[in-house]
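Exercise 7. Given the encoded structure of a 140-residue chain, write a plausible sequence.
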């Protein structure tokens, strides 16, 4: 008998909240667009040609076809800017992708993202020279 009172109340609540949930925001669909999933095939057998560290949480990889990819780590690695080699854990598929792990100084780091980039990775700014000083010297 008590359940007969609960059911109509829940039904009324569901009907009242459904118009609020049904409203779409067309701009939100465009902003959540994800880039295509990228991967490097045969990563453990010559698929990776080169790599570059950028800070403590980004690594750029170059494949055998000279295409560059950006890998972001879930957590920053304090040893990344100073390491000489990186271990790749690609699982059973032998391809470097978003689900792979990197080993840096014996510590495992899962990847947050792995995307293909156009061109080469950005170059690091040289220490000691400020961009303003370089621009001023070029004008003089």
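Solution.
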């Amino acid at each position: 008998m008590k359940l007969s009172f609960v059911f109509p109340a829940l039904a009324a609540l569901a009907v009242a909240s459904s118009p609020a949930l049904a409203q779409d925001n067309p701009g939100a669909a465009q902003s959540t667009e994800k880039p295509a999933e990228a991967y490097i095939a045969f990563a453990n057998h010559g698929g990776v040609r080169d790599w570059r560290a950028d800070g403590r949480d980004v690594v750029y990889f170059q494949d055998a076809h000279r295409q560059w990819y950006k890998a972001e780590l879930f957590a920053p690695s304090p040893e990344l800017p100073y390491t000489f080699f990186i271990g790749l854990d690609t699982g059973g598929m032998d391809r470097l992708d978003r689900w792979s792990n990197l080993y840096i100084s014996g510590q495992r780091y899962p990847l947050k993202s792995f995307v293909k980039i156009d061109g080469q990775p950005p170059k690091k700014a040289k220490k000691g020279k400020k961009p303003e000083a370089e621009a001023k010297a070029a004008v003089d």
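Remark. Residues 2-22 form the longest helix (21 residues). Students should compare their own answers with the one above.
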